[in-house]
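Hey,
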Amino acid sequence: MSVLTRKLGQTVFPEILPAVLGFTAVAVAITIGFEESSYPFKVNTIMLSVLTTMLSFAVSLRTSSALERWNAGRQAWTVVSSASRSFASLVWLHVADTTLDAARQATVEAGSDEAEVESVKALIEKRTILNLLCAWSVATKHYVRGEPGPFYDDLYDLVKALPRYSFPSSVDDDSTPTREDLGGL
């Protein structure tokens, strides 16, 4: 499946294409029919105004329901980003600055090489946790959009350091693109 086909499949285009083609065919048939016949084509203005009023109500309803869905998604995304920031603050402030336990830390000198190495290890752990937290938010966004796989500009750098797990997938999914399919991001 090409990237263009997948992107078009995520829009409203596949849903409206049959209706657009059907109405176009009917309009072409009516136009050709009236052009070929000598019957005068007249439309009652009252019927036309009623039809346009009903059409405007339908478009207005569709627009307002789409706006409500968009607003609900925006609110959900605000909750996700706010919770992620709160958790990131908790991790940064409350995870220890060293990987040593209290007993071992008491035996190590404050400025020694071992203390520095353990401090760097703790910093790497904190950064890994924060990267995974950011990756979860971005992966959730891609999942909601129906975009499988980790090979996206905003996601891949956050998860590339993770080991590849060899657990078998419970669902066979051949639609997951590889990096080569996506242009080698």
